[in-house]
Design a protein that fits this description.
497 residues, 4 domains, 6-stranded antiparallel beta sheet, single chain, 18 strands, alpha+beta, Beta-Lactamase
Length: 497
Amino acid sequence: MAPNTAIGFLLAALALLLSRNVTRRATGIVIQIATFVALGIGLTRLVGYAIQLELLYSWFQTARMALYTAVGMVVLAVGLWSMWYREPWYASNTYFRADEKIAFLGAGLLVVIGLTTGVAGFAAQQVTLEAALGETLNQDVRNRMATFRSEVSGKTARTRAMAQWLGTGADETGPRDLGAWKVAAESLLADSASSVSIFDHDRRLLLEMGNASTAPVLEVVLASRESFLLWDGGLLLRTSAPMALEDRRVGLLVVVDRMPLSTAHLGEANLCFPQASRLACFPQLPNPRVYTIDRKSPNGKPTPMTLAVAGKQGLVKGLDYRGRNVIASYAPLNAGELGLVVKQDTSELFLPVRNQLRWTVPLLILPVGAGAVLLRRQVTPLALRLFEAQRESSDKEARIRAVVGKVADAIVTMNAGGIIQSFNSAATAMFGYTEAEAIGANVAMLMPPEMRPQHDAGMQRYFAGGGARVVGRGNVQLPGLHKDGHVFELELAVTSI
């Protein structure tokens, strides 16, 4: 389990345990902090997935939280908030005033909006940068492939042509003119060859010029066993072609050339081929010696080079054999399972983004913090006024209820739908219903059944703008219905509020 995951669950558990018995303001503050820190951990990981922070910072890999765990952490924190939000210690304003709650939530929303905007900007910049680098790497691979194949095909064709010419000046015993062969060999050495070797039809050495590669560290066949790629202090290409005279083989020409794709030119490019269960690779700048790598990265997925030697071509973003995040373009160089990978570490690629984050994040935090403080200063007086107005309204309503409750006359209030809103004690004595039974019920239950259609029609006519027959007409003698079912005469006055 990642450290941030463990911390998030511990904070959530702490908030859950403390919320069972809150008797002090400090306990409530700890519960809120623990909940919002757990929420922040989950949101941070979701942000990490959005902008792929492990590509920006290699250390972020150690704090990797699974996506579904991050979502679960956010849901858990929201659930904790909805739980203690309804608890008496928070809802009753005992420890936290209404203005404090409003200011806190407002500041939180401001922070979320500010950070979301910043994250969206960096995510867009990252996507653009990745796309540009991906196209650059793909083009680099295509150029290297074209150069390599051109070199191999050109040198192979040159060796064949030279072998054909040498064959016309030889027989089974050897050259007719050894001097001419030496001149031909010198012309090859002057081109790009490091050594030229000529054998007779029994593989006996007839002529050798230059520095022949006798014990290469690496050797891989390229095509039809006419060309081999070697490593012997440098990247070499060995091509061979038979020397023939009138369809009779009289010897063999072997030429070893220096390849333009040297160690210095490889840079972040890798050339590898299968060797048993691993991959053998030619040296390059980060690895100046021949080395072998695993076919799978530390996360168990095939490395870009594994895909390349399998004959596949494409662009991948993930871990390489070193366990580092890279963006790599890969392709096979030939049918002999030689693969080419050109890559770049994402930590180097996103160095400009990291540098921007170093000064952008503080600049983003400053206005967000200032906005939160300003919001609190502006909201607190307003919230206090609203709180005072609500308290005064509640006090007035309580006083009115107290007065109405002591009036000797039965008083019933209802809304436009005929639903009872208040029911004083005199009404309870008159109709037999308690306040709890009456409030929320339809006022029609207080009148005999035969009068209910007339009542409904009168209500519809009145609220449709028609004339009033009872409302505002003073006292009217009408029958009422008691809870026990008996009908009694009452004097009714209806007033619109």
